[in-house]
Write a structure and sequence with these properties.
With 205 residues, this protein is of the alpha+beta class. It has helices at residues 91-100, 125-138, 167-178, 190-194, and strands at 17-22, 27-34, 37-45, 67-75, 83-86, 110-112, 121-122, 143-148. Keywords: Cell shape, Cell wall biogenesis/degradation, Peptidoglycan synthesis, Transferase.
Length: 205
């Protein structure tokens, strides 16, 4: 990390961070909020994938959730090297389940290392070490995770989901939220993105 980030101070100063995860593109991005707006730190490809496009609805469906999530805790003793626990199901997931009459929504959704997955987001061991460290040093309570079926910033159309009627509202909310984050110059070139270094900002007086 010392080679990849000349100065970790601006990345770990406690200011908000965001994780963006795009299921179709199978890409995860880490962003840091600066005075000038959101700036991307780096991106990582998924190393595994399960399910299809569309929200997670029940335990055992293999789906990666879609929505806006907070981090519950960091697990340094994960079976998948390291892992980051998301708060699925959140209040929106539970509310929609009540509307649909669904129970047993599933649990234990993580971003983790390795490549095996059933409904989680794996990014490999080296990448999770980097992401885990940056989030731990910055404070995981300052990180919001946004998981979308497609990268709406690129003009992608939302998927059609059978059996539910509330996904359009969810996707409109997610699309609106993504407008805060500029489209990376080279969104699918992870090697270039990982070399991006946020400018050092002097401490405020």
């Amino acid at each position: 990390m010392a080679k990849r980030f000349q100065d970790l101070g601006p990345l770990t100063n406690g200011e908000p961070m965001s994780i963006l995860a795009f299921k179709k593109e199978q890409r995860l991005e880490l962003w840091k909020q600066r005075e000038s707006g959101w700036e991307m730190v780096c991106s990582y490809p998924f190393t595994g994938y399960s399910g299809t496009l569309g929200p997670k609805l029940e335990e055992g469906d293999g789906q990666i959730p879609e929505g806006i999530y907070q981090i519950e805790y960091l697990n340094p003793n994960s079976s998948y090297h390291l892992s980051i626990k998301l708060d699925y199901p959140n209040s929106f997931d539970r509310k929609m389940a009540d509307v649909d009459g669904r129970e047993e929504l599933g649990f234990d959704i993580f971003i983790h290392g390795s490549s095996a997955t059933i409904g989680c987001i794996p990014i490999g061991d080296e990448a999770i070490e980097e992401l885990f460290y940056l989030i731990a040093k910055n404070g995981y309570s300052n990180v919001t995770t946004i998981i979308t079926p497609v990268d709406f910033r690129l003009g992608a159309a939302p998927p059609e989901v059978d059996g539910i009627g509330w996904e359009a509202d969810l996707y409109a909310k997610l699309s609106k939220r993504l407008k805060d984050y500029p489209i990376p110059e080279n969104p699918n070139n992870e090697d270039d993105n990982k070399e991006h270094q946020l400018p050092t900002v002097p401490p405020s007086s």
